[in-house]
Amino acid sequence: MSRLLIVAGALLLLAGLAWPWLGKLGLGRLPGDLLIQREGLTLYIPLTTMLLVSAVVSLLLWLLRK
Questions:
Q1: Buried b (16+ CB within 10 A) or exposed e, 3-42
Q2: Domain ranges, ordered by start, for the chain
């Protein structure tokens, strides 16, 4: 369990350091991401982005367990 936490922390650190470059990939503006704008309210729900990130994290965890 401690190894998993260390790897997760390292991945979060790398993602944080690479954020300026990751922002250029277009994550958060994919087809399927919902943006509702009304007077006095902006609601953003990144459905496609969440599914993509979840699939990548699941694949990484599966590879680390093998």
A1: eeeeeeeeeeeeeeeeeeeeeeeeeeeeeeeeeeeeeeee
A2: 2-65
